[in-house]
Amino acid sequence: MRNKIIAGNWKMNKDVSQSLALVGELKKALSFDLGTTKVIICPPFTSLAAVHVLIKGTPIALGAQNMYHEDEGAFTAEISPSMLKSVGCQYVILGHSERRQYFGETNEFINKKVKKAIASDLIPIVCVGETLEEREKNITDQIVSTQVKGVLKDIPANQVEKLIIAYEPVWAIGTGKNATPQQAEDVHKLIRKLIGQLYSWSTAEQVVIQYGGSVKPDNAADLLSQPNIDGALVGGACLKADSFASIIKASVK
Ligand code: 13P
User: Fold this and answer.
1) Low-confidence residues of the chain, pLDDT below 50?
2) For the chain, what are the domain ranges?
3) What is the model's pTM?
């Protein structure tokens, strides 16, 4: 049985004092029983250390939005897994479509980071998803399958079981136009079936697959009620404590 995981990707928003204010409000807004739902927030690098102090002893876990696949060295401006762990991160988003689109990240490069994150005891939230053009050409399944195979290359089953995959159709990100629950469910099912073929059905059943792309309080319950949608990776709506809390509430049984 997979538990729901709701993660907030803050992207390049909130300086340190704004981050602390948002976390303060979120702590208040999360006064209800979370049941088995897990909550993760992924603020910018500059806010991680301060936010970590504020969420200690709460059910909120910390994640980063990216990392590099080396431990240390001459890699100006990059951040290593041990640096993330030293500020309390347990999760890291890898291969977000904005990284792929604006910074040229490839499946091969993302695969190196996924392996390194796992080896460093960080749980990767690995993103996949098609563009509007690809969906209109009816090649969504092919694109997403290639991405999943590429990012999971040479990763053994016992490690795949622990990671999180986020299906984020690029055309739904920040556009206010979410995939319908059925459109999302179809791709989630495809991803789970593919993992079943690559590994085993028991591995496939354990992998958490989140949906991301214009998740809002008013569409969260429908999306999260689909059998293969195990949570959400939320962008815009996680920047307000009340809307993020409403999405979390929608995941609680
Ligand atoms: P929005 O929720 O703003 O569409 O962003 C989704 C996303 O990219 C989360 O990683």
Assistant:
1) none
2) 5-252
3) 0.98
